[in-house]
Amino acid sequence: MVLVYSDNEKLTRELLAKGRELADALGKKVTAVVIGPGDAADEMIKFGADKVIVAEGGPETFKAEEYADILAGAIEEAGSNIVLIGSTKAGKELASRLGGKIGAGCIIDCNRVYLDSGELTVERVVYSGNAVSVERFNSEVKIATVPCKAFDPLEKDDGRSGEVEKKTYQVGEYASIVARVQEMVSQGVNVEDAQIIIAAGRGLKNREDLKMIEELAEVINGHTLGCSRPIAADLKWLSEDNWIGLSGHKVKPKLYIACGISGQIQHIAGMRDSSIIVAINKDADAPIFKSADYGIVGDLYKVVPRLIEELKKQ
Amino acid sequence: MNIIVCAKQVVDVSEVKVDPSTNKPVLTGIPKKISDIDKNAVEEAIKIKEKIGSGKITTITVGPPDAKEKIKELLAMGVDEGILIPAPEEFDYHVVSSLLAGAIEKIGEYDLILCGEASIDMFSGQMGPRIAGILNIPQITYALKTDASDDRIVAERNLGDKMVTTESTYPALVTVTKEINEPRLPSLMQILGAARKPIHDWTAEDVGKAGLSAMTRTLDVKGVPMERKNINFEEDLDEAVPKMVEMLAKDGVLN
Ligand SMILES: Cc1cc2nc3c(=O)[nH]c(=O)nc-3n(C[C@H](O)[C@H](O)[C@H](O)COP(=O)(O)OP(=O)(O)OC[C@H]3O[C@@H](n4cnc5c(N)ncnc54)[C@H](O)[C@@H]3O)c2cc1C
Ligand SMILES: Nc1ncnc2c1ncn2[C@@H]1O[C@H](COP(=O)(O)O)[C@@H](O)[C@H]1O
């Protein structure tokens, strides 16, 4: 049995497509697990599930400890040996805990999942983007987490039928309490699909200076701003949506302009698939220049306005 | 307050290159270090110990013998004792997390276990939650800020689309982010003083986990080289900018 779980609806559909493919090749079935209200259960069948387990009576907010107990129960009952979990931050901590709890092999952030000689095989990025490792499992239960957009969802098929089953699983008692959940306001920025990204780093002195970066984005009809981790995580000048790198979004635009970004390997990991990379940095020795096609060594407060002016002529 | 920090020795990934003839990453001869965020975990442990006013900080590393040199840096920062456990020839997250959990159980009296959000070479974020799963204790991941007192810890966590505040009594396992603090640089006195602090060698047998076998295996590690034009303009901006814009236009990436 292939079991699929994610807290993200879109990602669940992508996992269902992969789950369907694996299950068909192995002559197995796909079970999706929903924790909480089962409103989406019928949808999941239309997107490829044979069965949906709606786990009721569980926690109201996400707690990895309790969710891992629920999934462990579902895995045991369904006799699942392939478990695909969405690689959101919550999904990763859930999958990892589950792996420890039930003693299963677990591989995080698998960009590729396929059968090779009938064996489940996965590929993931290691060494900050310098390499891809190809891995397999020795354990009975095999847990793989999969990031967004690794697979295309199936077309919705209203003709598909399947079974929806409500269940209650035994959940342990844990001393941790979720005291507060604050949803981050998404600005609806989608760096992953952007064709042109202008990215800002710590070289920017003030938040207001982002206006200059925005203006640069606008003159080339690339409205998408990206940033390094400190701009999103420490300074919070831009949101999680704009954060590019190993721990942020992976992007592949045709043009990436890095303004005042030093080019540490963890940033490069997120943008190394860009077609053309431009770097603007005042330090000629900044590592970003090694990862750039074109580099301008200079003060971004002089270079960016000059670049805007020149691009306007185009 | 007994705090345990799991700290990993890693290759400095920024020095890793791909060998074009074999298309494999070259990992030998690369400088090693303690994974960046594990130093944040150590810093947080020291801050908590200082705040509570008493306690002991122990680090555990599963790794090769040369990791001792790097563990000394953590002792210099303020860790009281180090433990080094060699990994068997074939290891994976199951093997290493079992060894770490075994060592933690052998230490026995612990309140808080700290790990990094993720290691910089593998970047899985698996080890911390995996250990918490084995020990069946609460896990508080991606902590941006902690507030620890004698009997509980409260943490603000970055879960990407959500900021979550979680609290727990002890024992609990917390994974920390890079933003949580700025790891201290030890003084010369502290570096010298670290020589007197112990680093214990424990084996898989010592922690009751002999004969573990890996649950995942790596078949191949393929290098991903990156080719760039590396054209740099260092001259006068009035020349450089138009030249570059022309090249970008030729590359067809401006619209
Ligand atoms: C496990 C881990 C995961 C990480 N994940 C990510 C990630 O996903 N994304 C990410 O970005 N980082 C990530 N980091 C952090 C990364 O290592 C760097 O610390 C970060 O990318 C640095 O951001 P920066 O380049 O904006 O800042 P800095 O490194 O401070 O660089 C600022 C640059 O601006 C230049 N500058 C200053 N003033 C000017 C000026 N007036 N004109 C022109 N240039 C100027 C400076 O020369 C410098 O090169 C991660 C780190 C770790 C350990
Ligand atoms: N070999 C190891 N020895 C000690 N701690 C480790 C080891 N591997 C990982 N860790 C801990 O687990 C965290 C997450 O690592 P990872 O799951 O590889 O991303 C690290 O930041 C360390 O705190």
Account of the protein in words:
The complex is a heterodimer of chains A (314) and B (255). With 314 residues, chain A is an alpha/beta fold. Chain A has helices at 9-26, 41-46, 64-78, 89-102, 210-219, 229-234, 265-271, 300-313; strands at residues 2-5, 30-35, 51-55, 82-86, 105-107, 110-116, 119-126, 131-137, 142-146, 163-167, 177-183, 196-200, 224-227, 255-259, 276-281, 294-297. In chain A, the strands form 3 sheets. Chain A has a 7-stranded parallel beta sheet, sandwiched between helices. Chain A has a 5-stranded parallel beta sheet with strand order 13-12-14-15-16. In chain A, strands 6-7-8 form a 3-stranded antiparallel beta sheet. In chain A, helix 2 links the parallel strand 2 (30-35) and strand 3. The longest helix of chain A is centred in the first third of the chain and has 18 residues, at 9-26. Chain A is elongated and about 65 Å long. Chain B has a single domain (2-201), classed as HUPs (Rossmann fold, 3-Layer(aba) Sandwich), CATH 3.40.50.620. In chain B, 29% of the residues lie in helices and 31% in strands. Chain B has helices at 36-52, 67-77, 93-107, 127-135, 188-194, 237-251; strands at 2-6, 9-11, 17-19, 24-26, 32-34, 56-62, 81-85, 112-116, 139-148, 152-158, 162-169, 172-176, 199-201, 216-223, 231-233. In chain B, the strands form 3 sheets. Chain B has a 9-stranded mixed beta sheet, sandwiched between helices. A two-stranded antiparallel sheet of chain B has the order 2-5. A two-stranded antiparallel ribbon of chain B has the order 3-4. In chain B, helix 2 (67-77) crosses helix 5 (188-194) and helix 3 packs across helix 4. The longest helix of chain B is centred in the first third of the chain and has 17 residues, at 36-52. The chains are: A alpha/beta (314), B alpha/beta (255). At the A-B interface, helix 3, helix 4, strand 5, strand 7 and strand 8 of A face helix 3, helix 4, strand 9, strand 11 and strand 14 of B. Strand 11 of chain A pairs antiparallel with strand 11 (162-169) of chain B, so a sheet runs across the interface. The structure holds flavin-adenine dinucleotide and adenosine monophosphate.
